[in-house]
Amino acid sequence: MKVIIVGGGIGGLAAAAAFHQRGMQVEVLERAAAFTEVGAGLTVQPNGLRALDVLGLGDPLRAHGLADPLVGVRNSRGGWLIRNDVATLRRTFGASVLIPRTTLIDLLKAAVPAESLRPATEVHSVRPDGTVHHSGGVSEADLVVGADGVNSVTRRSLWPHLPGPSYVGYTTWRFMAPPHPVEGSVETWGSGERFGQVPMADGRVYCYVIANAPAGTHIGLDELRRRFTGWHRPIPALLESVSGQAALQHDTYELPALPTYVSDNAAVLGDAAHAMTPNLGQGACQALEDAVTLAHTVNRLGLRAGLQEYDRLRRPRTQQIVRLSRQVGAPGHWTSAPLVALRNTVFPRLPKSLLTRSLGPTLTWTI
């Protein structure tokens, strides 16, 4: 069986590795000139690590250093809104791994034959029968997998009348700060603004900023520093420590629920199927789950039955996580003063076990 994969990011390379592992011929078409990843840090949570275990890549990734779960959420003055029982979370779900995104890309790429990788190949359209039109000509396969992101050409080709991604109302910056002492993985909520810090094994700090803004709004690092001047330590120092070129800004989009992830001899996975907000940190993990599940079901049941089983297993789960991610982040973007005050009063009184119960269905996945 030949499998063409459109998109050479985390989901696409994971799918290529999974199908290759099962003895199938793979071809990965990537628009960029090289197989790499634009971004800063990436937390691979326990469910994502179990997906990588299926590929034999979980332990090589764990060797880069384990990361603790989220310590909690503070308000802008530093008071705790949510204080997690980190030991219980670690014991219940296992550890995560925090790495530069390029580390995972390189690991996945090494699991795919070099001759299967076709960079600088822009896909123009995909047909349900397995035909792919691209800048290098036309390719045919038994199965086409669209792993080409939130603005997926594969999805638009297969379902041209379905709605596309929608802007959720906030934009996100990500950057790596130089080594700085921090207390662990902490997120801070203000009024329509959030700041996250995650320490890396090498001492650097992966940071992200999420703020309400109209779509397409460019906000520079100087403006971010001004906005967060009065926030608790070490947020101002982290923002001061990074250059403007190192901060990447992307508007945040979510994909409305698709009625199916498969069409004849084609399927979509990752952001092409279920783009979600970053509030649960599950985007890459769900793409990894998708990839190994798709290869597993097709290999076990054959093409058509395997695709239907993939859709049955993955669509309800991922669409539930899309909804949960949106809900989890919503209180951090409230701008009404009474609502923010209510949040800051009520959240510290919530039981610590609430997070453990809410994360259980997401983090305990197995194939």
Automatic annotation (TrEMBL):
Residues covered by the FAD-binding domain: 2-324
GO MF entries: monooxygenase activity
Keyword set includes Nuclease: no
Keywords: Monooxygenase, Oxidoreductase
Gene3D superfamilies: FAD/NAD(P)-binding domain
Keyword Oxidoreductase: yes
First and last residue of the signal peptide: none
Name assigned to this protein: FAD-dependent monooxygenase
